[in-house]
Protein backbone atom coordinates (compact mmCIF):
# COMPACT_ATOMS: atom_id res chain seq x y z
CA UNK A 1 0.00 0.00 0.00
CA UNK A 2 1.34 3.41 -0.96
CA UNK A 3 2.14 5.86 1.82
CA UNK A 4 0.93 8.83 -0.22
CA UNK A 5 -2.12 10.73 1.03
CA UNK A 6 -4.60 13.07 -0.64
CA UNK A 7 -6.11 16.12 1.03
CA UNK A 8 -9.69 16.29 -0.25
CA UNK A 9 -11.50 19.61 0.00
CA UNK A 10 -15.27 19.54 -0.34
CA UNK A 11 -16.62 23.07 -0.59
CA UNK A 12 -20.40 22.67 -0.30
CA UNK A 13 -23.29 25.04 0.18
CA UNK A 14 -23.74 24.54 3.91
CA UNK A 15 -20.29 23.30 4.96
CA UNK A 16 -16.68 23.31 3.86
CA UNK A 17 -14.77 20.14 4.71
CA UNK A 18 -11.27 18.78 4.43
CA UNK A 19 -10.39 15.09 4.67
CA UNK A 20 -6.98 13.46 4.67
CA UNK A 21 -7.45 10.17 2.82
CA UNK A 22 -5.22 7.19 2.13
CA UNK A 23 -5.34 4.99 -0.97
CA UNK A 24 -7.70 2.48 0.67
CA UNK A 25 -10.29 5.26 1.13
CA UNK A 26 -9.73 5.49 4.87
CA UNK A 27 -10.20 8.96 6.33
CA UNK A 28 -7.28 9.71 8.66
CA UNK A 29 -8.23 13.22 9.72
CA UNK A 30 -11.00 15.65 8.90
CA UNK A 31 -12.34 19.09 9.69
CA UNK A 32 -15.47 21.06 8.87
CA UNK A 33 -16.76 24.62 9.14
CA UNK A 34 -20.28 25.88 8.42
CA UNK A 35 -21.04 28.34 5.63
CA UNK A 36 -23.54 31.17 5.81
CA UNK A 37 -26.10 31.71 3.07
CA UNK A 38 -27.89 35.06 3.02
CA UNK A 39 -31.18 35.88 1.32
CA UNK A 40 -31.16 39.66 0.75
CA UNK A 41 -34.38 39.62 -1.32
CA UNK A 42 -37.07 37.04 -2.03
CA UNK A 43 -35.63 34.47 -4.42
CA UNK A 44 -32.04 35.67 -3.96
CA UNK A 45 -29.34 33.54 -2.33
CA UNK A 46 -25.68 34.41 -1.93
CA UNK A 47 -22.50 33.80 0.04
CA UNK A 48 -19.32 35.74 0.83
CA UNK A 49 -16.50 34.82 -1.54
CA UNK A 50 -13.82 35.73 1.01
CA UNK A 51 -15.59 33.72 3.72
CA UNK A 52 -15.50 30.62 1.52
CA UNK A 53 -11.75 30.97 1.04
CA UNK A 54 -11.20 31.58 4.75
CA UNK A 55 -13.26 28.47 5.49
CA UNK A 56 -11.04 26.40 3.20
CA UNK A 57 -7.92 27.77 4.88
CA UNK A 58 -9.37 26.96 8.31
CA UNK A 59 -10.14 23.31 7.53
CA UNK A 60 -6.78 22.84 5.81
CA UNK A 61 -4.98 24.23 8.86
CA UNK A 62 -6.91 21.95 11.21
CA UNK A 63 -6.18 18.82 9.20
CA UNK A 64 -2.52 19.71 8.67
CA UNK A 65 -2.10 20.30 12.40
CA UNK A 66 -3.53 16.84 13.12
CA UNK A 67 -1.50 15.14 10.37
CA UNK A 68 1.94 16.41 11.32
CA UNK A 69 4.52 15.49 8.69
CA UNK A 70 2.20 13.28 6.62
CA UNK A 71 3.11 12.69 3.00
CA UNK A 72 0.44 14.76 1.23
CA UNK A 73 0.84 13.99 -2.46
CA UNK A 74 -1.81 16.38 -3.65
CA UNK A 75 -5.18 18.06 -3.28
CA UNK A 76 -8.52 16.99 -4.75
CA UNK A 77 -11.31 19.58 -4.83
CA UNK A 78 -15.04 18.98 -5.08
CA UNK A 79 -17.30 22.01 -5.05
CA UNK A 80 -20.85 23.28 -4.99
CA UNK A 81 -21.82 23.76 -8.60
CA UNK A 82 -23.59 26.49 -10.56
CA UNK A 83 -22.52 29.09 -7.99
CA UNK A 84 -20.62 31.94 -9.62
CA UNK A 85 -18.54 34.99 -8.76
CA UNK A 86 -16.51 37.69 -10.47
CA UNK A 87 -13.17 39.01 -9.22
CA UNK A 88 -10.47 41.53 -10.08
CA UNK A 89 -7.66 39.90 -12.07
CA UNK A 90 -4.99 42.13 -10.53
CA UNK A 91 -5.98 42.24 -6.86
CA UNK A 92 -7.90 38.97 -6.62
CA UNK A 93 -10.68 40.80 -4.77
CA UNK A 94 -14.27 39.74 -5.53
CA UNK A 95 -16.43 42.53 -6.97
CA UNK A 96 -19.60 41.10 -5.44
CA UNK A 97 -21.04 38.06 -3.68
CA UNK A 98 -21.02 34.44 -4.75
CA UNK A 99 -24.42 34.14 -6.42
CA UNK A 100 -25.21 30.58 -5.49
CA UNK A 101 -27.04 27.91 -7.42
CA UNK A 102 -30.33 28.41 -5.57
CA UNK A 103 -30.53 32.10 -6.51
CA UNK A 104 -33.29 33.20 -8.87
CA UNK A 105 -32.25 36.82 -9.50
CA UNK A 106 -31.41 36.00 -13.11
CA UNK A 107 -34.93 34.78 -13.92
CA UNK A 108 -35.81 37.91 -15.99
CA UNK A 109 -32.77 37.34 -18.22
CA UNK A 110 -33.78 33.70 -18.74
CA UNK A 111 -37.36 34.75 -19.47
CA UNK A 112 -36.17 37.26 -22.06
CA UNK A 113 -34.02 34.66 -23.80
CA UNK A 114 -36.92 32.22 -23.82
CA UNK A 115 -39.29 34.84 -25.21
CA UNK A 116 -36.76 35.56 -27.96
CA UNK A 117 -36.78 31.90 -28.97
CA UNK A 118 -33.27 30.94 -27.78
CA UNK A 119 -34.15 28.17 -25.30
CA UNK A 120 -33.92 25.37 -27.85
CA UNK A 121 -30.48 26.48 -29.09
CA UNK A 122 -29.13 26.79 -25.57
CA UNK A 123 -30.35 23.35 -24.55
CA UNK A 124 -29.08 21.75 -27.77
CA UNK A 125 -25.56 23.10 -27.21
CA UNK A 126 -25.31 22.59 -23.45
CA UNK A 127 -27.78 19.84 -22.55
CA UNK A 128 -29.24 22.18 -19.93
CA UNK A 129 -32.72 23.68 -19.75
CA UNK A 130 -32.85 27.47 -19.72
CA UNK A 131 -33.24 28.12 -15.99
CA UNK A 132 -31.90 30.57 -13.36
CA UNK A 133 -30.16 27.60 -11.66
CA UNK A 134 -27.32 27.82 -14.15
CA UNK A 135 -24.57 30.48 -13.95
CA UNK A 136 -24.56 32.14 -17.38
CA UNK A 137 -27.44 34.54 -16.72
CA UNK A 138 -26.10 35.20 -13.20
CA UNK A 139 -22.81 36.40 -14.68
CA UNK A 140 -24.69 38.86 -16.85
CA UNK A 141 -26.60 40.06 -13.78
CA UNK A 142 -23.36 40.68 -11.85
CA UNK A 143 -21.82 42.60 -14.73
CA UNK A 144 -24.93 44.71 -15.28
CA UNK A 145 -25.62 45.45 -11.62
CA UNK A 146 -22.09 46.18 -10.35
CA UNK A 147 -20.98 49.73 -11.23
CA UNK A 148 -18.35 49.72 -13.97
CA UNK A 149 -18.12 45.92 -14.09
CA UNK A 150 -19.15 45.39 -17.70
CA UNK A 151 -16.66 47.92 -19.03
CA UNK A 152 -13.92 46.42 -16.88
CA UNK A 153 -14.78 42.95 -18.10
CA UNK A 154 -14.57 44.07 -21.71
CA UNK A 155 -11.10 45.47 -20.96
CA UNK A 156 -9.98 42.11 -19.59
CA UNK A 157 -9.65 43.31 -15.99
CA UNK A 158 -12.05 40.78 -14.45
CA UNK A 159 -12.21 37.03 -14.08
CA UNK A 160 -15.29 34.88 -13.59
CA UNK A 161 -15.51 31.36 -12.30
CA UNK A 162 -17.36 28.68 -10.43
CA UNK A 163 -16.22 27.95 -6.88
CA UNK A 164 -13.54 25.47 -7.97
CA UNK A 165 -11.87 28.17 -10.08
CA UNK A 166 -12.07 30.66 -7.21
CA UNK A 167 -10.41 28.23 -4.77
CA UNK A 168 -7.75 27.32 -7.34
CA UNK A 169 -6.97 30.99 -7.96
CA UNK A 170 -6.50 31.59 -4.24
CA UNK A 171 -4.51 28.43 -3.51
CA UNK A 172 -2.12 29.15 -6.38
CA UNK A 173 -1.73 32.80 -5.44
CA UNK A 174 -3.51 33.99 -8.58
CA UNK A 175 -1.30 31.97 -10.91
CA UNK A 176 -3.97 29.70 -12.39
CA UNK A 177 -7.43 30.44 -13.77
CA UNK A 178 -8.84 27.07 -14.75
CA UNK A 179 -11.76 24.72 -14.30
CA UNK A 180 -12.59 21.15 -15.29
CA UNK A 181 -15.06 19.69 -17.77
CA UNK A 182 -17.64 18.77 -15.12
CA UNK A 183 -17.92 22.31 -13.77
CA UNK A 184 -17.67 23.94 -17.21
CA UNK A 185 -20.54 21.78 -18.44
CA UNK A 186 -22.83 23.30 -15.78
CA UNK A 187 -22.30 26.96 -16.74
CA UNK A 188 -24.57 27.03 -19.82
CA UNK A 189 -21.70 28.65 -21.73
CA UNK A 190 -19.85 25.42 -22.56
CA UNK A 191 -20.71 23.41 -25.66
CA UNK A 192 -20.66 19.80 -24.49
CA UNK A 193 -20.39 18.51 -28.04
CA UNK A 194 -17.43 20.60 -29.20
CA UNK A 195 -15.96 20.75 -25.65
CA UNK A 196 -15.25 24.46 -25.94
CA UNK A 197 -16.61 27.72 -24.62
CA UNK A 198 -19.24 28.67 -27.17
CA UNK A 199 -18.99 32.16 -28.67
CA UNK A 200 -22.68 32.22 -29.60
CA UNK A 201 -23.73 31.31 -26.06
CA UNK A 202 -21.42 33.95 -24.61
CA UNK A 203 -23.03 36.51 -26.91
CA UNK A 204 -26.57 35.44 -25.98
CA UNK A 205 -25.84 35.74 -22.27
CA UNK A 206 -23.69 38.89 -22.70
CA UNK A 207 -20.62 37.32 -21.09
CA UNK A 208 -17.18 38.39 -22.40
CA UNK A 209 -15.30 35.20 -23.23
CA UNK A 210 -11.99 36.62 -21.99
CA UNK A 211 -13.26 36.32 -18.40
CA UNK A 212 -13.66 32.55 -18.54
CA UNK A 213 -11.32 29.92 -17.13
CA UNK A 214 -9.23 27.48 -19.12
CA UNK A 215 -11.01 24.11 -19.24
CA UNK A 216 -8.90 21.08 -18.33
CA UNK A 217 -9.33 17.39 -17.69
CA UNK A 218 -10.73 16.68 -14.22
CA UNK A 219 -7.56 14.77 -13.26
CA UNK A 220 -5.12 17.45 -14.41
CA UNK A 221 -2.40 19.00 -12.34
CA UNK A 222 -4.15 22.34 -12.05
CA UNK A 223 -1.37 24.16 -10.26
CA UNK A 224 0.61 24.17 -7.03
CA UNK A 225 -0.01 25.73 -3.65
CA UNK A 226 1.70 29.12 -3.45
CA UNK A 227 3.93 30.17 -0.57
CA UNK A 228 2.06 31.39 2.48
CA UNK A 229 -1.51 31.06 1.19
CA UNK A 230 -2.49 28.32 3.63
CA UNK A 231 -1.06 25.90 6.18
CA UNK A 232 0.19 23.55 3.46
CA UNK A 233 3.76 23.78 2.29
CA UNK A 234 4.23 25.52 -1.03
CA UNK A 235 4.43 23.29 -4.06
CA UNK A 236 1.74 20.77 -3.11
CA UNK A 237 -0.08 20.05 -6.41
CA UNK A 238 -3.82 20.38 -6.99
CA UNK A 239 -4.36 17.07 -8.78
CA UNK A 240 -8.13 16.97 -9.33
CA UNK A 241 -11.14 19.28 -9.52
CA UNK A 242 -14.70 18.08 -10.01
CA UNK A 243 -18.25 19.22 -9.20
CA UNK A 244 -19.57 17.72 -5.97
CA UNK A 245 -22.39 15.68 -7.50
CA UNK A 246 -20.03 14.25 -10.12
CA UNK A 247 -17.49 13.52 -7.40
CA UNK A 248 -20.13 11.57 -5.47
CA UNK A 249 -20.81 9.36 -8.49
CA UNK A 250 -17.07 8.75 -8.83
CA UNK A 251 -16.84 8.11 -5.09
CA UNK A 252 -19.51 5.41 -5.28
CA UNK A 253 -17.23 3.59 -7.70
CA UNK A 254 -19.67 3.88 -10.60
CA UNK A 255 -17.75 3.64 -13.88
CA UNK A 256 -20.40 2.30 -16.31
CA UNK A 257 -24.05 3.06 -17.20
CA UNK A 258 -26.92 1.35 -15.37
CA UNK A 259 -26.63 2.62 -11.79
CA UNK A 260 -28.12 5.89 -10.54
CA UNK A 261 -26.59 7.96 -7.77
CA UNK A 262 -28.57 10.38 -5.61
CA UNK A 263 -26.79 12.89 -3.39
CA UNK A 264 -29.23 14.18 -0.77
CA UNK A 265 -27.95 17.57 0.28
CA UNK A 266 -29.56 21.00 0.43
CA UNK A 267 -30.90 19.96 -2.94
CA UNK A 268 -30.57 16.54 -4.53
CA UNK A 269 -28.72 15.54 -7.66
CA UNK A 270 -29.37 12.26 -9.44
CA UNK A 271 -26.77 11.21 -11.98
CA UNK A 272 -26.22 8.20 -14.22
CA UNK A 273 -23.49 7.59 -16.77
CA UNK A 274 -24.37 7.28 -20.46
CA UNK A 275 -22.35 5.64 -23.24
CA UNK A 276 -22.33 8.90 -25.20
CA UNK A 277 -23.87 12.38 -25.20
CA UNK A 278 -27.65 12.04 -24.78
CA UNK A 279 -30.25 14.72 -25.48
CA UNK A 280 -33.00 14.47 -22.87
CA UNK A 281 -36.65 14.71 -23.86
CA UNK A 282 -38.02 14.27 -20.33
CA UNK A 283 -36.78 17.31 -18.42
CA UNK A 284 -33.38 15.91 -17.46
CA UNK A 285 -30.02 17.56 -18.09
CA UNK A 286 -27.28 16.13 -20.23
CA UNK A 287 -23.95 16.82 -18.60
CA UNK A 288 -20.31 15.77 -18.37
CA UNK A 289 -19.61 13.52 -15.40
CA UNK A 290 -15.81 13.94 -15.49
CA UNK A 291 -12.83 13.66 -17.75
CA UNK A 292 -9.69 11.58 -17.28
CA UNK A 293 -6.66 11.98 -19.46
CA UNK A 294 -8.72 14.28 -21.66
CA UNK A 295 -11.38 11.61 -22.31
CA UNK A 296 -14.84 12.86 -21.41
CA UNK A 297 -17.49 10.71 -19.71
CA UNK A 298 -21.07 11.87 -20.37
CA UNK A 299 -24.04 11.51 -18.03
CA UNK A 300 -27.68 12.37 -17.43
CA UNK A 301 -28.57 14.40 -14.36
CA UNK A 302 -31.66 15.66 -12.63
CA UNK A 303 -31.37 18.56 -10.18
CA UNK A 304 -33.85 19.06 -7.34
CA UNK A 305 -33.62 22.56 -5.87
CA UNK A 306 -34.91 21.91 -2.33
CA UNK A 307 -34.53 18.41 -0.94
CA UNK A 308 -32.78 17.80 2.37
CA UNK A 309 -33.44 21.45 3.15
CA UNK A 310 -37.13 20.55 3.20
CA UNK A 311 -36.72 18.79 6.55
CA UNK A 312 -34.92 21.73 8.15
CA UNK A 313 -37.49 24.17 6.77
CA UNK A 314 -40.51 22.27 8.09
CA UNK A 315 -38.77 21.59 11.40
CA UNK A 316 -38.44 25.35 11.89
CA UNK A 317 -42.08 25.92 10.90
CA UNK A 318 -43.17 23.39 13.52
CA UNK A 319 -40.91 24.86 16.19
CA UNK A 320 -38.68 21.79 16.34
CA UNK A 321 -34.98 21.83 17.08
CA UNK A 322 -33.76 20.32 13.83
CA UNK A 323 -34.34 17.75 11.08
CA UNK A 324 -33.60 14.92 13.51
CA UNK A 325 -36.46 16.05 15.71
CA UNK A 326 -38.69 16.28 12.63
CA UNK A 327 -37.87 12.69 11.71
CA UNK A 328 -38.65 11.50 15.24
CA UNK A 329 -42.02 13.25 15.05
CA UNK A 330 -42.73 11.75 11.62
CA UNK A 331 -42.09 8.25 12.95
CA UNK A 332 -44.98 8.62 15.40
CA UNK A 333 -47.44 8.17 12.51
CA UNK A 334 -47.57 5.47 9.84
CA UNK A 335 -48.33 7.83 6.96
CA UNK A 336 -49.06 11.47 6.14
CA UNK A 337 -52.84 11.00 6.40
CA UNK A 338 -53.27 12.34 2.87
CA UNK A 339 -51.13 15.45 3.36
CA UNK A 340 -48.68 16.37 0.59
CA UNK A 341 -46.00 19.05 0.80
CA UNK A 342 -44.51 20.27 -2.48
CA UNK A 343 -41.29 22.07 -1.46
CA UNK A 344 -41.08 24.48 -4.39
CA UNK A 345 -39.46 27.02 -2.08
CA UNK A 346 -37.17 28.34 -4.83
CA UNK A 347 -39.14 26.88 -7.71
CA UNK A 348 -39.20 23.34 -9.05
CA UNK A 349 -36.18 21.91 -10.82
CA UNK A 350 -36.07 18.69 -12.83
CA UNK A 351 -38.15 17.38 -14.43
CA UNK A 352 -40.57 20.36 -14.24
CA UNK A 353 -38.25 23.38 -14.55
CA UNK A 354 -40.66 25.92 -13.11
CA UNK A 355 -38.65 28.64 -11.44
CA UNK A 356 -41.85 30.53 -10.65
CA UNK A 357 -43.51 27.72 -8.66
CA UNK A 358 -43.89 28.11 -4.91
CA UNK A 359 -44.41 25.60 -2.13
CA UNK A 360 -47.82 24.22 -1.24
CA UNK A 361 -49.39 21.98 1.39
CA UNK A 362 -52.43 20.04 0.23
CA UNK A 363 -54.75 17.39 1.64
CA UNK A 364 -55.13 18.78 5.15
CA UNK A 365 -58.24 18.09 7.20
CA UNK A 366 -59.38 18.44 10.79
CA UNK A 367 -57.56 15.19 11.42
CA UNK A 368 -54.19 16.61 10.31
CA UNK A 369 -51.58 16.72 13.06
CA UNK A 370 -48.04 18.18 13.07
CA UNK A 371 -46.69 14.64 12.72
CA UNK A 372 -48.51 14.26 9.40
CA UNK A 373 -46.87 17.40 8.03
CA UNK A 374 -43.51 16.12 9.30
CA UNK A 375 -44.12 12.85 7.50
CA UNK A 376 -45.16 14.67 4.31
CA UNK A 377 -41.93 16.68 4.38
CA UNK A 378 -39.81 13.53 4.52
CA UNK A 379 -41.90 11.87 1.83
CA UNK A 380 -41.46 14.92 -0.42
CA UNK A 381 -37.71 14.27 -0.50
CA UNK A 382 -38.31 10.78 -1.85
CA UNK A 383 -41.12 11.75 -4.21
CA UNK A 384 -38.96 14.33 -5.97
CA UNK A 385 -36.18 11.77 -6.41
CA UNK A 386 -38.69 9.28 -7.83
CA UNK A 387 -39.88 11.87 -10.37
CA UNK A 388 -36.35 12.42 -11.63
CA UNK A 389 -35.51 8.71 -11.59
CA UNK A 390 -38.55 7.94 -13.76
CA UNK A 391 -37.70 10.72 -16.21
CA UNK A 392 -34.10 9.52 -16.40
CA UNK A 393 -35.27 5.98 -17.04
CA UNK A 394 -37.49 7.23 -19.87
CA UNK A 395 -34.52 9.02 -21.45
CA UNK A 396 -32.37 5.92 -21.15
CA UNK A 397 -35.04 3.81 -22.84
CA UNK A 398 -34.37 0.89 -20.53
CA UNK A 399 -34.91 0.07 -16.84
CA UNK A 400 -32.40 1.41 -14.35
CA UNK A 401 -31.27 -0.57 -11.34
CA UNK A 402 -30.13 0.13 -7.82
CA UNK A 403 -30.09 3.65 -6.45
CA UNK A 404 -26.85 4.56 -4.66
CA UNK A 405 -27.57 7.15 -2.00
CA UNK A 406 -25.35 9.54 -0.08
CA UNK A 407 -25.70 12.80 1.80
CA UNK A 408 -27.67 13.74 4.90
CA UNK A 409 -31.05 12.15 4.14
CA UNK A 410 -29.38 8.88 3.11
CA UNK A 411 -28.73 8.29 6.81
CA UNK A 412 -32.45 8.46 7.59
CA UNK A 413 -33.90 4.92 7.38
CA UNK A 414 -37.47 6.23 7.15
CA UNK A 415 -36.65 8.24 4.03
CA UNK A 416 -34.55 5.47 2.48
CA UNK A 417 -37.20 2.79 3.01
CA UNK A 418 -39.91 5.02 1.57
CA UNK A 419 -37.59 5.81 -1.34
CA UNK A 420 -37.16 2.14 -2.11
CA UNK A 421 -40.91 1.53 -1.77
CA UNK A 422 -42.04 4.17 -4.26
CA UNK A 423 -39.21 3.46 -6.70
CA UNK A 424 -39.73 -0.28 -6.57
CA UNK A 425 -35.94 -0.58 -6.64
CA UNK A 426 -33.27 -1.43 -4.07
CA UNK A 427 -31.51 1.51 -2.43
CA UNK A 428 -27.97 1.30 -1.07
CA UNK A 429 -26.98 4.04 1.38
CA UNK A 430 -23.28 4.84 1.53
CA UNK A 431 -21.28 3.87 4.60
CA UNK A 432 -19.35 7.16 4.56
CA UNK A 433 -21.14 10.50 4.73
CA UNK A 434 -18.48 12.35 2.73
CA UNK A 435 -18.80 10.61 -0.64
CA UNK A 436 -18.15 13.77 -2.69
CA UNK A 437 -14.87 14.42 -0.86
CA UNK A 438 -13.87 10.79 -1.22
CA UNK A 439 -14.68 10.95 -4.93
CA UNK A 440 -12.35 13.94 -5.31
CA UNK A 441 -9.68 11.99 -3.43
CA UNK A 442 -10.20 8.94 -5.65
CA UNK A 443 -9.86 11.10 -8.77
CA UNK A 444 -6.67 12.66 -7.42
CA UNK A 445 -5.26 9.22 -6.63
CA UNK A 446 -6.14 8.08 -10.16
CA UNK A 447 -3.96 10.88 -11.54
CA UNK A 448 -1.09 9.19 -9.67
CA UNK A 449 -1.96 5.81 -11.19
CA UNK A 450 -3.48 4.61 -7.90
CA UNK A 451 -6.94 3.03 -7.79
CA UNK A 452 -8.93 3.85 -4.65
CA UNK A 453 -11.99 1.64 -4.02
CA UNK A 454 -15.52 3.04 -4.09
CA UNK A 455 -17.38 3.80 -0.89
CA UNK A 456 -19.21 0.66 0.33
CA UNK A 457 -22.87 0.59 1.32
CA UNK A 458 -23.87 0.59 4.98
CA UNK A 459 -27.61 0.24 4.58
CA UNK A 460 -29.58 -1.80 2.06
CA UNK A 461 -33.28 -1.18 1.53
CA UNK A 462 -35.62 -3.24 -0.62
CA UNK A 463 -39.24 -2.48 -1.55
CA UNK A 464 -41.67 -3.50 1.19
CA UNK A 465 -44.77 -1.72 -0.13
CA UNK A 466 -47.10 -3.46 -2.57
CA UNK A 467 -47.26 -2.03 -6.08
CA UNK A 468 -50.84 -0.75 -5.75
CA UNK A 469 -50.07 1.23 -2.58
CA UNK A 470 -46.97 2.67 -4.16
CA UNK A 471 -49.00 3.73 -7.18
CA UNK A 472 -51.56 5.49 -4.96
CA UNK A 473 -48.81 7.40 -3.16
CA UNK A 474 -47.32 8.53 -6.48
CA UNK A 475 -50.74 9.61 -7.77
CA UNK A 476 -51.37 11.68 -4.63
CA UNK A 477 -48.00 13.38 -5.07
CA UNK A 478 -48.58 14.04 -8.78
CA UNK A 479 -51.97 15.55 -7.96
CA UNK A 480 -50.29 17.90 -5.46
CA UNK A 481 -47.65 18.96 -8.00
CA UNK A 482 -50.32 19.54 -10.64
CA UNK A 483 -52.29 21.68 -8.20
CA UNK A 484 -49.15 23.65 -7.33
CA UNK A 485 -48.40 24.42 -10.97
CA UNK A 486 -52.03 25.23 -11.76
CA UNK A 487 -52.15 27.71 -8.88
CA UNK A 488 -48.99 29.40 -10.15
CA UNK A 489 -50.36 29.51 -13.70
CA UNK A 490 -53.46 31.27 -12.43
CA UNK A 491 -51.40 33.80 -10.51
CA UNK A 492 -49.20 34.41 -13.55
CA UNK A 493 -52.26 35.10 -15.67
CA UNK A 494 -53.74 37.42 -13.07
CA UNK A 495 -56.54 35.01 -12.14
CA UNK A 496 -57.73 34.04 -8.70
CA UNK A 497 -56.51 30.62 -7.51
The helix tally amounts to 15
* Architecture (CATH level 2) name of the domain at 5-246: 2-Layer Sandwich
Helix content, binned percent: 25-40%
Largest beta sheet: strand ordering: 17-18-16-15-21-22-23
Radius of gyration: 22 Å
What is the fold-level CATH name, i.e. the topology of the domain at 5-246? Answer: Nucleotidyltransferase, domain 5
Strand content: 15-25%
Structural class: alpha+beta
Low-confidence stretches: none
Distance between the termini: 65 Å
Summarize model confidence as the mean pLDDT: 94
Largest sheet: 7 strands, mixed
CATH uppermost class of the domain at 5-246: Alpha Beta
CATH superfamily of the domain at 5-246: ATPase, nucleotide binding domain
Overall, the morphology is globular
Would you report the number of β strands? 23
In short:
The chain is 35% helix and 23% strand.
General description of the model:
A hairpin with a 2-residue loop joins β17 and β18. The chain has a domain at 5-246: Nucleotidyltransferase, domain 5 (2-Layer Sandwich). It has 497 residues and is α+β, with helices and mostly antiparallel strands. It has a seven-stranded mixed beta sheet, with helices on both faces. It has a six-stranded mixed beta sheet with strand order 3-2-1-5-14-13, sandwiched between helices. The model has no long low-confidence stretch (mean pLDDT 94). The protein has helices at residues 49-67, 107-115, 119-126, 135-145, 149-154, 163-171, 181-184, 199-204, 244-251, 308-317, 323-330, 370-396, 413-423, 435-447, 467-492, and strands at residues 5-11, 15-21, 27-34, 46-47, 72-79, 84-88, 98-99, 158-162, 178-180, 190-191, 196-197, 214-216, 223-224, 237-243, 260-264, 268-273, 285-292, 295-304, 340-342, 360-362, 403-407, 427-430, 457-461.
Amino acid sequence: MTSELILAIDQGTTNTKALLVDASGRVLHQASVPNIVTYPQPGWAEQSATALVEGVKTVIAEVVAKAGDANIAGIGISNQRESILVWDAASGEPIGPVVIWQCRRSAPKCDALRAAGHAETIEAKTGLALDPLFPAAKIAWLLDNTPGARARAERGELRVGTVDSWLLWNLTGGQTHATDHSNASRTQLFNTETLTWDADLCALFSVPQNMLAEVRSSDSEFGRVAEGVCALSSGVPIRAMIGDSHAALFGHGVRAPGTVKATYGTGTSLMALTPSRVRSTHGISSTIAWSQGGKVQHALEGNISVSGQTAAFVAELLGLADATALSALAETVSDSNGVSFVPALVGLGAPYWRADARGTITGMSLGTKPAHLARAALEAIAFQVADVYSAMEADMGSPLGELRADGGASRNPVVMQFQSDILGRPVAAAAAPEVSALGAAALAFSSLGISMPGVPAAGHFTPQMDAESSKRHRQRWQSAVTQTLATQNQQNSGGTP
